[in-house]
C-alpha cells in the first residue's frame, strides 16, 4: 500500500517508459509523413482528437472506479479479519472453561498461521511456508495433503473447538458463538479468493490502449503545423497522463499482486500477531511493521 511519502520519479517513469517509447516512435513517424506527404494528407480537424480524448476520459474514469472498488473491497475484507481475530481470542478466553491456557494458545497460534497462510496464498506464494513458528509438527504434517493450506488450518481450529465442546470445556451456546466467528473467517477467505480469481477483462485494457494510440495519431496530424521540438514533447506529456491513469487502474484491480499498490496483508498479519500475543499476555518479539520506503506490503 502506498504511503503518504514522496513517490520516486523512477518508479513513475518505469511504469510508462515502454508506452512512451511507442508514442515517441508514432510521433516521429506521423510527423515525417505529414511533412513529406503534406499535399496528400488532409487537414485533421482538432475536434476529432478532442472527441477521442473525451471518450478515453470516460472509459478511464469507469475503469478507475471499478478498480478502486476491487481494491477497497479487499481492504475491507482484511479489516474485518483484524476485528474478528481480536473478537475470536476474546471469545475463547471468555467462554472456554478453565484451565484452558494451552488450548487457547494452540488455537490462537493456528489462527496467526492462518492469516499468514492466506496472505501468502493470495500472492501466489506457498501457503505453508514459514509457519513452523506457529504450528506443531503434527499440524504441519497434516497440511501436506491439502491443496488449500489456509482452509486446512481453519479446519484444524474448527475440530479443536468442537473437541473442547465434547470435553465439556465449552457450552453449546458458546460453541455456536465461536463457530460464527470461524464462519466469518471462512467468508472473508472466500471473498478474497473471489477477487483474486476474478480477472478484470484483458480486452478492456487492449481496446483502451488502441484508442489512446489512435487519439495520439489524430492529435499528431492535427498539430502538423507545429514544430517537432514542441509537438513531440507535447504528445509525450499528454500520453503519459493517460497511460499513468491506466496503469494505476490496472494495479488497483489486482489488490493481491505483491505490488506497492497491494493490500498490505503482511503488515496486517503482523498487527494481528502482535494483538493476539498481547491478549495472551506473551512477550512480543515481533515489532510493528515500519517502512522506510514509500509503500508497505
TrEMBL record:
> Ion transport: present as a keyword of the record?
yes
Q: What are the recorded GO MF terms, alphabetically?
A: chloride channel activity
- Keywords of this protein's UniProt record, alphabetized? Cell membrane, Ion transport, Membrane, Transmembrane, Transmembrane helix, Transport
Q: Which domain of life is it from?
A: Bacteria
Q: Name one GO cellular component term.
A: plasma membrane
The UniProt entry lists the main location of this chain as membrane
Q: Which InterPro entries match?
A: YneE/VCCN1/2-like
Where are the bilayer-spanning segments?
Answer: 12-34, 40-62, 204-223, 229-245
Q: Where in the cell is it found?
A: Cell membrane
Q: What's the protein's topology in the membrane?
A: Multi-pass membrane protein
The family annotation for this protein states: Belongs to the anion channel-forming bestrophin (TC 1.A.46) family.
Quote the protein name from its UniProt record.
Putative membrane protein
Give the organism, scientific name.
Pedobacter antarcticus
